[in-house]
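Z., the sequence and structure:
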Amino acid sequence: MDVVLRSGLVVVGIALIVWVLDAAVRTFVLPRAAPVRLTRWIASFNRRIFRLVGREAHSYERRDKVMAMYGPITLLTLPAVWLAMILGAFVPIFYAIDDVPVGTAVRYSGSALFTLGFMTSAETDAVAVVFVEAAIGLALLALLISYLPTIYSAFSKREVAVTRLSVRAGTPPTPGELLERAHLAGFMHRLDDVFEEWEMWFVELEETHTSLVILNFFRSPNPDRSWVTAAGAVLDTASIRMAAIDLPFSPSGGLCIRAGFTALRSVGDYFGIDYNPDPSPDTPIAVTRSEFDATLDRLALAGVPLVADRDAAWRSFAGWRVNYETVLLRLAEITMAPYAPWTSDRSPVIEVTAPSDP
């Protein structure tokens, strides 16, 4: 075989190996959001299949069961595709070094990758390649094994808070339900503790759901719950507390809102969601004035102390909500969140393209 051709095959194989290893490290190891084209292509392909299957479902419950498998299957698909690409990448290398038929080079590569040892070359250079391929195969499997406990630990911690919220705010969670129960149960004065808890939850969400992006698509054990709708309910509750509840001022609600929209925007940046980073307080929002007034009427009937000026309360509420509404509603659509007032019930219908997948 011509030396130039041999060299070219080796270079092609090495380039493909580097591409796969770069994708694996960026996806499983790098502790920050790092868009990886190969990972996005795999996730996007899986997502199109699941969306097609989900559209055939005649109820939300069936569609939820279908989409619940998207995250785990995609997570397992990634190393499978990477291993297949590594196997293919070493084929031209063995073919160039040993000058053997392509079928024999494939068997060499498969034997080395899965450390089976049923075929090997007598060439010294090829033996070294066998060791390298075996090490890469083991490393990719080790990455997946070490990744699973991390992602399920983050998932469990996220869902504990979502489940606790359902106790206080119902399922689906609503700000009116949370505030009414807080007043009737006598923990209205402890709302600051709730907001501080969720401020930390948003901080952790920003870290985990941008570095472990597939977590965004891991659905809650209860099909009627979602981390997106829970986030929306808490943020709306904090906004109403700051705008319309007649209690002494406390910064906890405002800090919770800031932590919330910062976290949601960070996740939205990964998915390429377009939003105004500095919206005007009078920007129109998806919640109507009549819906806001209906919630305040409900709270008033329950005896919750409200401010006298409803117009000022509405302007203040809208001024808080504009900071997180756009990203919140689009994330509700992307994750196919279950029904929840003021969130998934009015999220825009958008198609998620390849650059917007994990």
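The radius of gyration is 26 Å. The first helix runs from residue 3 to 28.

Let me know what you think.
H.
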